Amino acid sequence: MNTDIFETFAYAKINLGIAVKGKRPDGYHELQMVMQTIGLHDTVRLSLLEKDEIRCLCGSLSGPKNLAYQAAKLFKEGLNSRQGIRIEIEKRVPIQAGLGGGSADAAATLGGLNRLFNRPYSQEEILRLANQLGSDVAFCLNGGTQWAEGRGEILLHLPKAPEMPLVVVKPQQGINTGESYRMFDRLGESHPLSLEAWQGALQSGSAAKIASLLSNDLEAGSQAILPVIASLKEELRREGCQGVLMSGSGSAVFGIAPSAKRAQEIAHSLTKKGYSVWATKTISPKYT
Ligand code: C5P
User: Fold this and answer.
1) Mean pLDDT, rounded, for 196-208
2) Which pTM value belongs to this model?
3) Coil, strand, or helix at residue 147?
4) If you take atom 4 of ligand 1, which residue's CA is the nearest one?
5) Which runs of consecutive H residues, i.e. helices, occur in 117-176?
6) Which residue in the list 105, 136, 170, 233 is annotated as catalytic?
7) Are 217 and 184 in contact (CB under 8 A)?
8) In CATH, what number does 5-157 get?
9) Where are the domains of the chain?
10) Is 281 marked active-site?
11) Band (288; pLDDT cuts 50, 70, 90)
12) Does residue 180 have a cis peptide bond before it, meaning omega lies within 30 degrees of 0?
C-alpha cells in the first residue's frame, strides 16, 4: 500500500468584488466576482488506509459533514474505489467568515487525492467534481486572481494582483450564507462589476486603483444582520487601510494596509480589542 502522506496548504480567498446580477429559477443567485487568494491557510494531510472508509479529522468539524470528506467521497465514487482515505485538517481559516476555508480544504483534498492515486482524473474531471461540491471550490483548485460568473463556476484568469498587505478581521459571530442572500433579496442593490476596469486596475499593479474598485453587493444585507461588520470596516479605515470591504457573505472584513509593517501593527491593535485578526497578503499560489 502507498504509505505516503501528502501535505498541502489550503489557502483562503477574499472577494475584491461581488455583484449579484439576479435570482435564478433554482433559487441560487447569478454573480460576478473578483476572487483573490490570500496567505492565510489551513494545512491538509492526506493518506491512504487499509480499510474502506473515509476518516476526516478536523477538530469539531470532523466527520461526513466536512466538505473535504464529501470531496473524498465523490472522488472515490467516480472511480468505484474501495481505497480507504484519511484526511487531517489543521484549521486556521475561520468558518462562516466568507473566506472560503471549507472550499479550500475540499479543493486541496481533490487535488491531493488525484496525486496520491497517480492522477486517475483529468483537470477537467477534477473541475467537474469541484463544481458538484460548492460554488467556490473550482476557484480554489488554482487560486490566484480570477473573475467568476454563474454561481462561481465560470472562471477566467485575471492579471495577477500585486502583493498587497492585508488585515483580515472576523467578529465573533459568523454569517450564514443563505441568510445573507435572503437579506440581499429584501434590501440589496445590484452594482455590476466592469471586467475591463478590473483588468486595467490589476494590470497597473496599483493598490490604490484596486482599492477604488472594491465593492460587494452582499455587504448591506450582512451588515443589517450583523452591524459590527460596519464598525469593523470603520476601525480598519481609521487605522489607515486604503481599501476596506467585507469578504463573500461575511462576517470577515479585510483592509488593504499601506505596508506589511502597518498590517502587523493594525492587527496587534485590533487583537487587543478582542477580535480575531490576521495580518496577511494577497498571493498567487503555485499548485503542481
Ligand atoms: O454555496 P453554498 O452552499 O455555501 O450556499 C449556501 C446558500 O447561499 C445557498 O443555499 C443559497 O441559498 C445561497 N446562495 C445563493 N446564490 C449563490 C450562492 C449561494 O443564493 N450564488
Assistant:
1) 98
2) 0.96
3) strand
4) 177
5) 123-133, 137-142
6) 136
7) yes
8) 3.30.230.10
9) 5-157, 165-281
10) no
11) low
12) no
